[in-house]
């Protein structure tokens, strides 16, 4: 731990990692709370795995065809938005079995990604960092991209929070009141997909669901209103990210995996403490 | 026509091939308190959704205040069944009520006027003191009153409630009907109910729905019919008042009256 603090002052890559963590945490807390409250983690999972297709394709174009601006982060963003639009169309029509379509998106995205990555020279390191994240390798271009995504997510969320709340809680009422439920549903899915992209930078796409949901789920154990949960979840996510990086730095453990273990541990602790609190204080919560 | 709030004319409705409502003619008068009764699966909720314009009739026409339902949605307050939302969703009673005005602004937070209206609506249902309590911590009756406040916050002229007392005890049920009586002075109220006994005691009219539908005035039902009705023998009242709830199969065989509007 002490090594981490020592190096944090001198090494820019560690400072970048912390800034990246902060940027990811903002979106994570705000959007993750909606995902957990709406019970939409499976949707986020499908989008997350679809991201591999975009990353792989972008990396292939960059390496093999020398299209420099086609970064994996850009590819991930495009793939995530396309996946969100497909999910929105499928869930709105209600004709297909939703879970089947989500599973298909999940698997096809991964399959496309693996094919592209295998066709790209030097693929092994790439694959590992996409799957498990590599926040210590983050550069200034990545940070700028992340900041733009964050700005989009936070501004849209501030503008349409009330609409997202009503379409999530009572879609039928929203429809009755003349609110364009389908449009807002699609927009919310796009915001979820952008958040997934941000979080893959920290923990990789295999563990992204954990980072998206664990801080929010922990926060929702204590917060009774969604916007309060968002504030708590953002703080928790940042705390998990920083402590994950710090704990893993000295012993050279994988940063992403450590972040998730901290988040998971805290979540279990929150459940346990709430259970114990209820058991020993049999006070009626309502009074 | 001025005195009619909801008008069904030769309405049929089918989900895919299965016809749920057949040849419905119904005129619900202004300022009435109508209890919609009938067996499960008889089409009560479908009737409500047609009135709200959430479903379109396959034949015939539905009019609310003499217009297509979707054009008058702003005049309708709707209280859904208690199972239609997630009770663990992290919102306060005030949040729930404010949602009734979510259509009043394009973006940003609710305006001052929305908040004032929401607090007024909570006061009308005697829930102002719990406005910041989370939904998960409200009792069944309190939740139901929050939903009524949500419907009232848009100043409706017609209030439709789908099984508002399905999840509450008798005492709370009584309170809710007292509230509806009070609100009935200003607006027409339609209550879907599975409890004939209670709804007959409070409503001015009964709409008996079982594939077909008909409306009877409660004060025209004789004492004997009423007591038989309360015992659960629906056929007595239906024969007497031409309220053919019991005999769905023969009704369904009748030819369609209305013109086809879909397919």
From TrEMBL, chain A:
The keyword Nucleus does not apply. SUPFAM superfamilies: ABC transporter involved in vitamin B12 uptake, BtuC. Gene3D superfamilies: ABC transporter involved in vitamin B12 uptake, BtuC. It is a multi-pass membrane protein. Keywords: Membrane, Transmembrane, Transmembrane helix, Transport. It holds the Pfam family ABC-3. Its main location: membrane. The chain crosses the membrane at residues 13-35, 42-61, 73-92, 104-123, 143-161, 230-249, 255-277. It is found in: Cell membrane; Membrane. One of its GO terms (cellular component) is ATP-binding cassette (ABC) transporter complex. It comes from the Bacteria. GO terms for biological process: response to zinc ion; transmembrane transport. InterPro entries: ABC_BtuC-like (IPR037294), ABC_TroCD (IPR001626). Belongs to the ABC-3 integral membrane protein family. PANTHER family: ABC-TRANSPORTER METAL-BINDING PROTEIN, METAL TRANSPORT SYSTEM MEMBRANE PROTEIN CT_417-RELATED. This is Metal ABC transporter permease. It comes from Shewanella algicola.
TrEMBL record, chain B:
It holds the Pfam family ABC_tran. InterPro entries: AAA+_ATPase, ABC_transporter-like_ATP-bd, ABC_transporter-like_CS, Metal_Ion_Import_ABC, P-loop_NTPase. Keywords: ATP-binding, Nucleotide-binding, Transport. GO terms for molecular function: ATP binding; ATP hydrolysis activity. Residues 6-236 form the ABC transporter domain. Belongs to the ABC transporter superfamily. PANTHER family: METAL TRANSPORT SYSTEM ATP-BINDING PROTEIN TM_0124-RELATED (PTHR42734:SF17). This is ABC transporter ATP-binding protein. It comes from Shewanella algicola.
